[in-house]
Amino acid sequence: MYISFDYFSITLLLGGFTALLSGIIVFLRNRFQLENQAWLALNVSSAIWSFAYFSMVVAPNKEIATLSNIILHGAAIFIPIFYFLTILAVTRTYSLHKKFLTAISAFGVFLLVVNPTHYFVADVFEKGPFRYAPDAGPLYIYFTIYFFAIVLYALWITYQLLRKETDLIEKGRLRSIILFTVAGFGGGGSVFFLTFNINIAPYPLILFSLYPVISGYAIFKYQLFDTKVITTQLVTFALWMFILIRTLLADTLKEQLINGGLLLITIVFGMFLIRSVLREVKTREKIEELAKNLEKTNKDLEGANARLQELDQLKSEFVSLATHQIRGPLTAIKGYASLIVEGDYGKISAGVKDAVNTILHSAQSLVVVVGDFLDVSRIEQGRMKYDFKVFDLKVLVQEVVNELKPNLDRNKLDLSVTIDQNTEFLVDADRVKIKQVIANIFDNSIKYTPKGSIAISLTKANSKILFAIKDTGIGIHKDTIPKLFAKFSRAKDANETNIIGTGLGLYLARELIRGHNGRVWAESEGQGKGSQFYIELNEAEG
Question: Which of 453, 432, 444, 443 is nearest to 489 (CA)?
């Protein structure tokens, strides 16, 4: 029996094994996808061609060589058809080239019928490095044209998609398909030279043995981690087959033992390598899944946040519109109530006067509430405007004291004011808004101090001016202080003392003082021990 174990025969065996394993492993990853099915068919055909070619070149006689030749060409006829189908499936262009696929399949059946005849392959002879190689018959040229025309057309389709593609990853995948198709079919197609009696040894066959691995990676790159496993398995199995063949075909017992030991070591290390890659792939797949879930969650949160912002904007716009509409009627009610109390519409009884005064005070309270809502709306929409001017803060504080003194007298509260009249307390601020803040805090101290006293002071140090107001009122619970300046926040005892409020006053105070790059805060030793409020502003240059 004549067996030539050389470069060419080894290349054919390796090509057959890698093609077969590549097709089976990829197919088993997803048996229901067209590209996986087409890839299996392509690689089974390539494997049959490779094994049959090996059988022909090492055949002990012409009869076996002739039979091997018929089998290898039967497989070769369908290689371009299955390759074309694979390309169509991968590029999602199957429906566009369905008729062409049908036409080449019909011609392939014709070639399959004439394959066993001398019109296709005239005979097999010793050629170049091979003991037996085919000699072209009169119809073989049409098979050659058919073979390469289909491959070139598939490449042209891939190239056209490459020109239009904008995604960088997809462009890289298409380039890889083109590159390795040229290499693979160029390597396998090198045997055509001997068939047409062109004296060129088919050394590029090595490219064919690598093609199933490399091209499979390119085509199924979207399954990167799976492909890593596939590639590892293919390379490992191919190495085992190579060493096994060397062992079986060794000339001496010593060579068999050496190759057998090497095979055993390769199997052990190969198994460890495959297991290691599988663990890595599973870990990365879990990480990838977690990353996808996290990305989805982030997108959901972004969408929810955008919706919340939209709703908040609509709420602010509604509040602004509603309060604007309410302000007009309230102003009218307040005005007419004042005229009635002052007697502009004639004398009224004491009972009517008390009722109208109640209406007047309620209208005044509602005006304040409406004003607070409007200010909150402007702040949240970023529409709050400030009129900065330099003024003496002690003058403004005295104005607030004079305006709220009737409230002090009504509650029978003592007031002490500690302000150096010879010192200027200059600030660059919006006078109206600073007055609003101080009046609000002062009024709160009066409301929450049923008896006792209130002390006001104004000091400056280190280019800072500090306004302080201390009372002997109900105090503030320690749990309440951290959230005292939050929107709609009220002291725990507010309801118990029947004090009406919206919970916006201190929130507005904080936001308005922040607009002046200042600070406002509160302190208290606890319930029943009074409270202290502080406003710190930057001193203006005199």
Answer: 444
Torsion of CA 523, 527, 528, 529, to 10 degrees: -30
Q: How many helices (H) and strands (E) does the chain have?
A: 14, 9
Radius of gyration of the chain (CA): 46
Torsion of CA 485, 489, 495, 496, to 10 degrees: -50
Burial of 287 (0-12, 13-18, 19+ CB in 10 A): exposed
Token pair of 282, please? Answer: 């599973």
Q: Quick one: which of 111, 133, 149 has its CA closest to 195?
A: 133
Q: Using CA atoms, how far apart are residues 119 and 155, in angstroms rounded to an integer?
A: 30
Cβ atoms of 424 and 392 closer than 8 Å: yes
Per-residue pLDDT band for 137 (boundaries 50, 70, 90) equals very high
Find the helix or strand (DSSP H, E) in which 396 lies.
Answer: helix 393-410
User: How far, in Å, are 12, 16, 66, 132, 192 from residue 58 at the CA level?
Assistant: 11, 15, 12, 8, 18
Using the predicted structure, report yes or no on whether residue 376 has a pLDDT greater than 50.
yes
Q: Where are the alpha helices (DSSP H) in 165-223?
A: 168-188, 192-195, 205-219
Q: What is the pLDDT of residues 474-521, one digit of tens each?
A: 988 888 888 888 776 655 555 454 455 556 778 888 888 988 899 999
Distance CA 173, CA 185 (A): 18
> Is 231 a residue whose pLDDT tops 80?
no
Q: pLDDT value at position 67?
A: 93
Kindly give the pairing relationship between strand 130-136 and strand 121-127. antiparallel
Chain centroid to CA 193:
53
Cβ distance 443 to 466 under 8 Å? no
CA 315, 320, 321, 324 torsion-angle sign = positive
> Where are any strands of DSSP class E within 377-463?
388-392, 414-419, 426-430, 453-461
Question: How far apart are alpha carbons 445 and 448 in whole angstroms?
Answer: 5
Report residue 371's pLDDT band, with 50, 70 and 90 as the boundaries: low
Residue 330 has pLDDT above 70, yes or no: no
